[in-house]
Amino acid sequence: MAALLAPSILLLVAINAYPLVFAIGQSLHDGGITGAGDFVGLENYATALQDPAFWNAAWFTLIFTVVSVGVSWIIGMTFALVLRNPFPGRSGFRLLLLLPWVVPVVVSTTSWNFLVATQSSPVPTLFRALGFGNVQFLADPTWAMITVIVFKIWGSFPFMMLMMNAALQSVDPSVEEAARIDGATAWQKLRHIILPIIAKPIYISWVLAAIFTVNDFPTIYLLTGGGPVGATNTLVVFAYRLVFQDFRTGYGVAVAFLITIVIVAVSVYFFRRINRAPLAN
Amino acid sequence: MSETQNLVVARHDARRAQARPTSRFERKQRIRGWTTFAVMAIITALILTPIINIIVLSFQGGQTLSGETIWTFDNFTEIFTETPVITYLTNSLTVTLGTTVFGVIIGAMAGYPLSRLRNRFARGYSLTLFVVQGLPVIVIVIPLFVVFASLGLADSLTGVAIIFIAGSMAVTCWMMASYYDSIPFELEEAAWVDGASVFGAFVRIVLRNSYPGILSAAIFSFLVAWNDYLVAVVFLRSEDNFTLPIGLQYFFQQNSTDWGPVMAMSVVMLLPPVIIFAALNRYFSIGGVGGAIK
Prior knowledge:
The complex is a heterodimer.
Chain A: H1 6-27, H2 43-50, H3 52-82, H4 90-96, H5 99-102, H6 105-116, H7 122-129, H8 141-168, H9 173-181, H10 186-197, H11 199-214, H12 218-223, H13 235-244, H14 249-275
Helix pairs in contact in A: 1-14, 2-14, 3-8, 3-11, 8-11, 9-10, 11-14, 13-14
Chain B: H1 3-47, H2 49-58, E1 60-63, E2 69-71, H3 74-82, H4 85-116, H5 120-134, H6 137-151, H7 157-181, H8 185-193, H9 198-206, H10 211-227, H11 230-235, H12 244-254, H13 259-280
Antiparallel strand pairs in B: 1-2
Helix pairs in contact in B: 2-13, 3-13, 4-7, 4-10, 4-12, 5-7, 7-10, 8-9, 10-13, 12-13
């Protein structure tokens, strides 16, 4: 039976494990994209840890991830709860609300660019008309941060909705009924009955969404390119730029490795927590 | 009053007592249902603005002198006759179909031991997949580019498809494993007793009952391959090999003010996943993701 794992293990070794080992070597050299370069030990890592641009990107990656995972979960969970009760057009809404996640990021960033990029775009025009003044959604550092985070929430809340929708199906209606008879309010029922029952899928959805968000490249690259003045630079975009634009492969790979170490540590930590989640099924 | 009359009155009262609150309850339910509908319709319309925007702009061809918007198919005619969008589309379809077929086969195979084996090895492999799933694509892509260049797989659709298969593998394995979990083990045992091999029972009993799981995994693989940008932008260098995301971006950079054709190309790119979701949405279950983590 274990033989059925063979193709997947082969692929795992060839496409994930081997390049990872190769990358360790690259991160210890000062080479470019093709040349191996000289062995420099941990110098690239030291450079990263002393580079303000690295910390800037790390900081924004953290904000970007935590805010977009948190808010998209709240929105996704709310929709999943609303869509549990029958109402006219329910299945239609369920499908329509998935679209931001289904539509390719390259396509949606193009449309968002149209909507917000310049002063004459529809959304800035609307903001002016409503008396909010001239908002530069992609050119002002703070607004650019808000814009990419809102975009990310927009594109990932359907994933949360799907995950929570599936999780809610595992909640036994008789448990809820019992809580209702005991006089629990809707909020109490949610807080003390439903959420604890689906704690494990909730953790899983957070971890997966966080991984997807940290690794997200096109959102930032296509909306702001990491700008203005690096305000929306994430570690992945930073590493990409180092390798493919500055041709500092060793340094870029070292940055990518630092992301990897954090992600692996966090996912192993959560992996253990998931299994200790209350009422894990 | 006679017994019968009594009974009739009682029954009548009972019916009235039952009927009135029910209809009031029902009416309340209906009002609440339509209120939910109205609120959801407004929210959904707001959320979908960026997507509606793409479709509207793709059919717009500037304005007449009197300021009226011209509705036209010209943008579509233009991209199909004057840009290599057909090449992009063919490349995207090739890569996506390759990824979906091989990705599902590999996931369907690996999911079986992950679902049925309860030993340390299966758990360890499940954890490995979980960790691999979290690896930044960027850390793998850079060395792979060097390796693939030496194998002639850089700037090749095959190379890109291989990376997509590996990239979506963890999730497809979980999806399949969690679907297999819902199939009773007794079915295979019965087949084994009847002399079927492990592989035979897997194919004829388990796989044949797993179409929804297979469909879910296929939809997921499709989305990964169709929507990816990073792998394609790193690996695909010549325009003949561009997939739609790269082609669209390339076209956008050259015609950033000419929104009509750009949005028409966007429509070409968003239609396949939207159609697939519209048709197969009810089979798509992502709930199993992570459920296989034991």
